[in-house]
Design a protein that fits this description.
Elements (H helix, E strand, L loop, with lengths): L2 H9 L12 H5 L23 H5 L1 H18 L12 H15 L11 H4 L7 H17 L4 H9 L5 H4 L11 H11 L4 H16 L2 H15 L8 H5 L11 E2 L10 E2 L13 E9 L2 E2 L3 E8 L11 E3 L1 E3 L2 E3 L2 E4 L3 E4 L8 E5 L6 E6 L3 E2 L1 E4 L3 E6 L7 E6 L4 E6 L4 E6 L2 E9 L6 E7 L2 E9 L26
Parallel strand pairs: 2-9, 3-21, 6-10, 9-16
Antiparallel strand pairs: 1-13, 3-4, 3-18, 5-17, 5-19, 7-8, 10-14, 11-12, 15-16, 19-20
Bound molecules: protoporphyrin IX containing FE (HEM).
């Protein structure tokens, strides 16, 4: 059974039902404004073997219920803030596809699985219940009979473990810190007060990343200074925040490549007598993804590379480059070209930072001084990840999968090699002797690192949330 079929089976019992049926929405929603949407897609009156899709009234009816459902969610104080950064039109389309496919309709769900799409959100049971109640309300509005309503809602239950975060992954904020934020909250009014209240509830539940996002929005509305006394409530345990003023980067800035950084870029016009071509192997197999090879002359006479000014962009909910190699002292700008907010943070030892929330071409810069591997994450989108490899080696290159890498200008001699792949926990060290002329070698690294979404900014694991039930 493939992932999508399994997903469909989670939403409704696989195999369907053969009991007599009514056409729930087709029959009952005829007097609603939404029903005007029903056209050629509407199924024929239900036969004895009609699918739930048909009994609900087909795609136009599912669209009408989904519209009503999303309207209810957007007005539901318990969960509405969850969707501030979401393209609701896209979400509606995906929900319609999902329900249509899952109820036996002629649709193909094109979104992500439930675990991936909700990873890192720290959703709790109360929020899941609120969302299900909003769907129940939408079904009631269209007078869907109890049987069909029960079939649809009853089938959502098995999805809960994939969507809701287990309590042991949440870290409630201590009462004294909550009291501090509450004393600041009383000074606020309007939307800022509303968001602060939601942030306090989230902090009490231990939804620290969500609480931090809500508090960032309070800061944007009320001014960071006004609510500074509450910042430790939401930020203790997170990396230092970068608060430099936002700059704009031109929207037509070309998209960044998926990998960047090679010492050969600095060696134009240099003609040393040796070269090295090779590849990275992960546990003996060709590298999948990206890696880096660094060469240090064994005699210690290393030329220091000049620091660079580079870009790691956020575009289409991805970081690019995915791997960037730069010498120590380099500065990286982090423009967000998406219309939704992103965050960039690192809890890696060489550089811990949290760059805040921004969008629409805004950017901030970070300087990387210490050598090492810095894994970047987005606090909102758990599956976004990339790496900055801060290299103190005079020779370095980023390696693209099974493709060969080349160092064009090397002096003959012994070198220490440090090779790393994005699926390695740490670089692997070895030695090589380079002779005049062309050399070749492959370097083996371990595939023992985290590849999915990493820890959140408070150091809590974000994924997998829980194994999906088997069907
Ligand atoms: C059975 C319950 C649920 C179902 C069937 C469901 C379904 C979905 C689907 C199909 C998507 C789009 C996936 C994609 O981007 O490819 C999605 C995204 C999302 N869901 Fe749920 N969801 C459920 C529960 C919840 C709950 C309880 C919340 C919060 C109260 C929630 C919040 C969100 C948000 C904020 C997104 C958008 C993420 C983004 O903007 O990238 N969902 N959900």
């Amino acid at each position: 059974m493939n992932k999508l079929t399994a997903l469909a089976c989670m939403l409704i019992a696989c195999g369907g039902s053969s009991r007599p049926h009514t056409t729930a929405l087709a029959g009952k929603a005829a007097s609603t404004p939404h029903n005007a949407a029903r056209g050629g897609d509407a199924p024929a009156p239900a036969a004895a073997t009609a699918s739930l899709f048909e009994r609900l009234g087909g795609k136009p009816a599912i669209i009408a219920v989904t519209d009503e459902f999303i309207d209810r969610v957007a007005a539901d104080a318990r969960i509405k803030h969850r969707f501030f950064n979401t393209d609701l039109t896209r979400l509606k389309t995906l929900l319609v596809e999902l329900v249509c496919m899952a109820t036996g309709g002629p649709c193909k769900y094109s979104g992500q699985d439930m675990e991936t799409s909700h990873a890192g959100m720290e959703l709790v049971d109360e929020e899941f219940t609120a969302l299900v109640e909003d769907l129940a309300g939408a079904l009631d509005k269209f007078k869907v009979p109890a049987k069909e309503k029960g079939e649809l809602l009853g089938a959502l239950g098995p999805m809960q473990p994939q969507i809701v975060t287990p309590k042991d992954r949440l870290k409630p904020v201590p009462d004294a810190a909550i009291a501090k934020a509450t004393s600041v909250a009383v000074k606020l009014s309007g939307e800022a007060a509303d968001l602060m209240q939601a942030a306090i509830i989230a902090a009490k539940r231990g939804q620290r990343n969500y609480a931090d996002q809500l508090f960032s929005r309070v800061e944007a509305l009320a001014g960071a200074r006004t609510v500074a006394a509450a910042a430790p409530t939401f930020r203790d345990g997170a990396p230092p925040r970068i608060e430099t003023p936002l700059k704009k980067m031109a929207k037509d800035t070309p998209a960044q490549p998926k990998l960047a950084g090679a010492s050969d870029e600095d060696d134009q016009g240099v003609a040393l007598p040796a070269s090295l071509t090779g590849s990275i192997l992960v546990d003996g197999k060709p590298l999948e993804g990206l890696g880096t090879v660094m060469l240090f002359p064994a005699n210690g006479r290393a030329k220091r590379r000049t620091p660079k000014q580079r870009i790691v962009e956020q575009r289409d909910k991805q970081f690019s480059p995915h791997v960037l190699a730069v010498p120590p002292g380099s500065t990286v700008a982090f423009p967000n070209f998406d219309g939704v907010f992103h965050n960039v943070f690192s809890i890696s030892e060489p550089k811990k930072f949290d760059i805040g929330l921004y969008k629409d071409g805004d950017t901030r810069e970070v300087k990387f001084e210490k050598p090492g591997i810095v894994r970047l994450g987005c606090n909102i989108h758990a599956k976004m990840a990339s790496y900055i490899v801060v290299v103190d080696a005079p020779h370095y290159v980023v390696v693209d999968g099974g493709k060969a890498f080349t160092f064009k200008n090397l002096a003959p001699g012994k070198y220490k090699v440090r090779a790393w792949s994005e699926s390695s926990a740490a670089p692997a060290e070895s030695e090589i002797t380079i002779k005049a002329g062309a050399n070749s070698a492959s370097f083996t690294v371990k595939g023992d690192g985290e590849t999915g979404p990493s820890e959140d900014k408070f150091g809590m694991t974000r994924q997998p949330i829980r194994p999906a039930p088997r069907h």
